[in-house]
User: Which sequence fits this backbone?
């Protein structure tokens, strides 16, 4: 059996039911396929990766080097060094407007945003619980929920409504078994941004039903046009049953460093710290010092990246819309476009997975099929690549 990454899993291996519930991230599988072509020397135009093509800013790199030279290479507290927890709370208040500011006891440092979400879901979701996930969704949410024993339930969003999640849709999909709603704005893969007033209504629905709201703010600083960075934690009285999952990966071009965090009520942070203390312990010590510099230092690199993404977004939207039969909403955030290509399906190319395969094999262009995100008929194109490539 192939697991999609080229790894062979021997059939007689008796894996746990828990592990058999999940599959390899489909976006990772696409990256692996593109890598095979690159290894053969093929010049692949790679629109697959969900990561900035910019290097990590110098001042952040220097902080890591300094930490290394100062031998800050020992274990740290599981929840992270106190100055970093404080700096994340301060950064969140200053740059996203959480009010009142979170306190370090309400913050844990994790090994990336995905790890933060994984930990929160594992701490709160039990067997039989439902977790509401707007579709199209980021590939990892359903599998993380399944791993925890929960059942993902999908709330549809519509292309003709710019893929925005509506409070009415959340209200409709909530059942007595719903434990959590996971919201991602700006959204991977659609780029949709939920307007603040709608976000407030979604939170109100969650509060009324006693359901946790986990908001994934991974792309918080990449918004275009009228959309602005926003956090639910800026709404008055918004602390109960609210979980913020954050990441340094995209904001500071630090995907490989693995640095993320959770902001949540103190008892939940304590539970997640317990879980983390028995798994990964602390996020890498020198990365924590680099993150401290990122959170305390200047934000100019973030605005420079945003300006470049904005230019690429215009270019790619214009190009896509010039292709007959392709429809594409203008994404308000993140760095993806999510066109509907279904008008081009044929007997030889019956769906988006076949289209992605043919694009790679015939044109050496890598994209991710919409099926991976629960959206057949679409493909995801990342414009975190140079304008020349676009
Ligand atoms: N959330 C979303 C929506 C993402 O797209 C990603 C990465 O692609 C993450 C979270 C996780 O990022 P990381 O684990 O690198 O911090």
Assistant:
């Amino acid at each position: 059996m192939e697991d999609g990454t080229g790894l062979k899993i021997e059939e007689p291996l008796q894996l746990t039911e828990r592990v058999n519930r999940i599959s390899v991230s489909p976006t990772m599988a696409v990256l692996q396929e593109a890598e095979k072509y690159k290894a053969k020397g093929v010049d692949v135009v790679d629109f697959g990766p969900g990561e900035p093509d910019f290097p990590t800013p110098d001042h952040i790199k220097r902080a890591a080097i300094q930490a290394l030279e100062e031998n800050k290479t020992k274990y740290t507290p599981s929840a992270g060094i106190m100055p970093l927890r404080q700096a994340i709370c301060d950064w969140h208040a200053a740059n996203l407007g959480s009010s009142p500011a979170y306190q370090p006891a309400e913050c844990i440092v994790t090994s990336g945003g995905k790890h933060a979400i994984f930990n929160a879901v594992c701490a709160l979701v039990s067997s039989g619980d439902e977790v509401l996930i707007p579709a199209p969704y980021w590939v990892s949410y359903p599998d993380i929920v399944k791993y925890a024993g929960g059942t993902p339930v999908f709330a549809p969003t519509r292309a003709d409504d710019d893929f925005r999640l509506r409070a009415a849709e959340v209200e409709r999909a909530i059942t007595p078994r719903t434990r959590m709603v996971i919201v991602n704005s700006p959204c991977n893969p659609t780029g949709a941004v939920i307007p603040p007033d709608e976000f407030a209504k979604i939170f109100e629905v969650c509060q009324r039903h006693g359901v946790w709201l986990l908001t994934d703010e991974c792309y918080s600083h990449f918004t275009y046009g009228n959309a602005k960075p926003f956090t639910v934690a800026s709404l008055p009285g918004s602390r109960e049953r609210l979980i913020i999952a954050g990441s340094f990966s995209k904001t500071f071009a630090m995907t490989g460093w693995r640095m993320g965090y959770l902001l949540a009520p103190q008892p939940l942070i304590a539970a997640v710290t317990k879980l983390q203390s028995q798994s990964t312990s602390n996020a890498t010590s020198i990365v924590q010092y680099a993150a401290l510099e990122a959170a305390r230092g200047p934000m100019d690199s973030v605005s420079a990246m945003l300006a470049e993404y904005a230019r690429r977004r215009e270019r790619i939207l214009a190009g896509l819309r010039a292709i007959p039969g392709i429809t594409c909403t203008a994404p308000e955030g993140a760095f993806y476009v999510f066109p509907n290509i279904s008008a081009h399906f044929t007997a030889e190319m019956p769906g988006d997975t076949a289209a992605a395969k043919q694009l790679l094999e015939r044109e050496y262009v890598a994209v991710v099929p919409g099926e991976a995100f629960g959206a057949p008929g679409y493909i995801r194109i990342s414009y975190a690549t140079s304008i020349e490539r676009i």
In short: The pocket of pyridoxal-5'-phosphate is lined by residues 50, 112-114, 138, 184, 188, 216, 218, 247, 249, 255, 260 (CB under 6 Å). The chain has a mean pLDDT of 94. The first strand starts at residue 45 and ends at 46.
